[in-house]
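pinned: reference chain
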Amino acid sequence: MIQIYHNPRCSKSREALQLLEETGKPHNVVLYLKDTLTKEQLTALINKLEITPIELVRKNEQVWKDGYKGKELTDDEVINVMVENPKLIERPIVTNGNKAVVARPAEALKDIL
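pinned: its structure tokens
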């Protein structure tokens, strides 16, 4: 099942959702700011994306600038920060089986469909 980790307030996330809906493929929308991810779920997403945790952080968010910018954090600490502050998770993330992509631009999701 295709899943999109979606923030309805984000234009890039809305674009990716629209593109996904246009494919007609069944999918599940995860409102990750409301239904927050566990550490295990976020770690699994990072592994599917084949990136390091810091690559998934939205570094321009004020929460990051105020509390974490410039600090030396381990991967585990970065994951914990994102679990505690889901607003810091880059979006949208689209998964399909064992594949995942940060759909920025939205067309990037076509790589995993």
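why pinned: The chain has a mean pLDDT of 97. Strands lie at 2-5, 27-30, 93-96, 99-102.
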